[in-house]
Amino acid sequence: MKISVAYHAQIRLAAGVDQDLVEIPDGGTAVSALRAVSHGAEFTALLFDEQGRLRPVILLVVNDVPVEPDQALQPGDKVAVFSPVAGG
């Protein structure tokens, strides 16, 4: 199934694109959609720790609703990925 993945903040900078359209198996999850894209080591390090787990500071939103990484997706879902933002 096709899923849209949109990147925000630092993750967008590391990806070098605003979004990707990815193909994942039926029954795939929000985190499996992230694993389906590849934008290099910096991108991967922002999202996943050394054991390959999604970093707890990463916020996933599916169709404008915050979700857990294991949220099952449906064809056409839109996953948005946010990293922490600091400012002053």
* Structural shape: globular
The CATH architecture can be given as Roll
**Gyration radius from CA atoms, angstroms:** 12 Å
Question: How much of the polypeptide forms β-strand, as a percent range?
Answer: 25-35%
How many domains? The number is: 1
For the residues shown, what is the average pLDDT? 94
The CATH superfamily is Beta-grasp domain
Strand order of the largest sheet: 2-1-5-3-4
CATH fold naming: Ubiquitin-like (UB roll)
Number of helices: 3
From N to C, what is the helix and strand string? EHEHHEEE
Tell how many strands the DSSP assignment holds. 5
Summarize the structure.
Helix content is 23%, strand content 26%.
Commentary on this structure:
This protein is an alpha+beta fold. It has one domain: Beta-grasp domain (Ubiquitin-like (UB roll), Roll). It is 23% helix and 26% strand. A five-stranded mixed beta sheet has the order 2-1-5-3-4. Strand 3 and strand 4 (65-67) form a beta hairpin. Helix 1 packs antiparallel against helix 3 (41-47). The longest helix has 7 residues, at 9-15. The chain starts with a strand and ends in a 6-residue tail after the last strand.
